[in-house]
Amino acid sequence: MLSRVSSRLTTRAKAAPCSILKHDFHVSAVTAKKHPGQIKKENLLKRAARKAEFEKSRPSPILSKPTPFFNTLHTPASAFANQTDTQHFLTDADRQYLYEQVPRDTVEKRNLSAVEGFDEALKNEEKKVETIKKIIGLQNANAKAVQLYNIQKAIDWFKRKEGDTGSPEVEAAILTVRILNLHSHMQQHRKDKHNYKQLREMVHKRARVLKYLKRKSQERYYKCLEELGLEPRAVEGEITM
């Protein structure tokens, strides 16, 4: 009797693996649903990360891209190395009067009858003119005079008509020159809090001027930004420094 039962159990045990393999099991992975609060938290973190990455890529509100306009400007170092006839406060009429008319008038007042004597005296006056050019040249000017020269270049570049010194383009260009000059100063004097405050004020003032220009004419606004080497994101929205 016992031998029959044991033989049956042994037979079933041997047959069991085959029957298990033949049986078709459908197993589905059970995933727990996230809590709505957890989903909201994850979405907020993703949104914050995207915003941080966007702000990280924001262009500098101070530095500009190189443009042809900036090629006309000088720094104190480049002005000192400049060997050309560059005076920072003389107009074309002033140059013509000081360099050409004054030497000739000075010689004529001497009433020199001989032609050779007149020519010799004129050459001496022209040598004096060359000395004057070196004295009042931009290469001998201080940083303040170089900035004034750059401001005049900005006015000449962005003016809409003769005598224009107050259009939004000119005002934005002058502020850009002053911003770059003050930024250069801050690179050497990082603890100058007073000038740092002035720098921030000028950056925000330029943004207001450009915002007004955009309301007035978008075509002029984008053209001004292009010539100043600024991107819209650098002057629009919240400006952080």
- In the predicted model, the low-confidence regions spanning at least 5 consecutive residues are 18-23, 25-29
The number of helical segments is 10
Largest sheet: none
Report the radius of gyration as a whole number of Å.
39 Å
Mass-distribution shape:
elongated
Short description:
The protein is mostly helical and 241 residues long. Helix content is 68%, strand content 0%. It starts with a helix and ends in a 6-residue tail after the last helix.
Element layout with pairings:
Blueprint (H helix, E strand, L loop, with lengths): L1 H21 L13 H21 L19 H6 L10 H17 L6 H22 L6 H16 L9 H21 L4 H24 L1 H11 L3 H4 L6
Helix pairs in contact: 4-5, 6-7, 7-8, 7-9, 8-9
Describe what this molecule looks like in 3D:
- The protein is built from ten helices and no strands.
- The protein is mainly α.
- It starts with a helix and ends in a 6-residue tail after the last helix.
- It has helices at residues 2-22, 36-56, 76-81, 92-108, 115-136, 143-158, 168-188, 193-216, 218-228, 232-235.
- Helix 7 packs parallel to helix 9.
- 17% of the residues are buried.
- The longest helix has 24 residues, at 193-216.
Features:
241 residues; mainly alpha; elongated; single chain
